[in-house]
């Protein structure tokens, strides 16, 4: 199936373009090549370890050519939910991400919502127990995403998903998930482009690829970051393509567009 009508490419960040401060092979040049095709590029990320500003500065320092408004983060999607529903959040997020919630943490009374991102320093008994008690009192549980694990330089590490599931199990409630694989999150990234004219490139077979393909996009699974051998067999339909890395995905996309 050729991609001659391709209009938009959504790109995951951590694990796809970079792992902390290490660039995946050929990623900087591959992004430049992709821009030459004139497709609309959007960077869609579940990263909750740092604010959008910190993330943008990190990527620029690594040599990537991108604009601030090309980045869509699940942190900002969570902020939109809090603002739309006038919620008072208990934030279980990394301190480097707090600036994306500026103005939402000064309120009177108890929190009426619990927002869970990747925040290892908060995943202790006392903090989780406080969150659990709030949920029992009717607070809303918001998962910035439910990633099971992610890749760090020292190996795979637990994501926020296991802690979200623990809170759901204990409280008997259900979390609202705002990041990938939420269909709404992908549609925001597409900005009106029809899904069958778009591609998603990512390292997470469920959140990136399965989530995108469920709404009709083509999914490119890269074998970097959190990828584990056999991931491509864990979803149905399988990824449109499984490739070694982001650069290989771009090469295949350009080939498909010109076929």
Name the overall outline.
globular
| Helix amount | 25-40%
List the total number of helices.
8
Gyration radius (Cα, Å) is: 18 Å
- The total of beta strands comes to 14
Largest sheet: 6 strands, parallel
Mean pLDDT over the residues: 95
Arrangement of strands in the largest sheet? 5-4-1-12-13-14
Strand content: 15-25%
Element order: H for helix, E for strand:
EEEHEHEHEEHEEEHEHEHEEH
Distance between the termini: 10 Å
In the predicted model, the low-confidence regions spanning at least 5 consecutive residues are: none
Structural class: alpha/beta
Please specify the SSE layout and strand pairing.
Elements: E1 8-11, E2 18-19, E3 22-23, H1 27-35, E4 40-45, H2 52-61, E5 71-73, H3 74-84, E6 89-92, E7 113-116, H4 125-136, E8 140-143, E9 149-152, E10 155-158, H5 161-171, E11 176-177, H6 183-190, E12 198-202, H7 205-214, E13 218-222, E14 241-243, H8 246-257
Helix pairs in contact: 1-8, 4-5
